[in-house]
Design a protein that fits this description.
Layout: H1 6-14, H2 26-46, H3 56-67, H4 69-79, E1 81-83, H5 88-91, E2 99-101
Antiparallel strand pairs: 1-2
Helix pairs in contact: 1-2, 1-3, 2-3
């Protein structure tokens, strides 16, 4: 699956007011946010039993990917993993995400 910057652009639009302005120009943010999401997924694949909690910035981009449900499901199927998302309000009481490898 080819990544596009659509998820990072979505994150720019979804930023809550409490996060204030972008830390970079929008163009730089989009490029770096997309790259960060790819690196985060690669880290999960490399060590699936570790708990990789995303930063608030990365969570916005990941959430935008999750909202593209059909593509997100296909992406996870290609990777052979499941990454569960726990809402922020529940995060303090539970593990941030759960990962399971599919039996091949």
């Amino acid at each position: 699956m080819e990544f596009q910057q659509v998820y990072a652009k979505c994150a720019v639009r979804q930023r809550p007011a409490v996060m204030e302005g972008l830390p970079l120009s929008e163009e730089e943010y989009v490029v770096l946010a997309e790259r960060a999401l790819k690196i985060w997924y690669a880290a999960i694949l490399a060590q699936p039993m570790k708990n990789y909690t995303p930063t608030a910035e990365l969570d916005l981009v990941w959430h935008c990917h999750i909202l593209d449900m059909h593509n997100y499901a296909g992406f996870l199927q290609q990777l052979g993993i499941k990454i569960g998302h726990v809402p922020f309000s529940v995060r303090k009481q539970t593990i941030w995400h759960s990962i399971s490898l599919r039996a091949s």
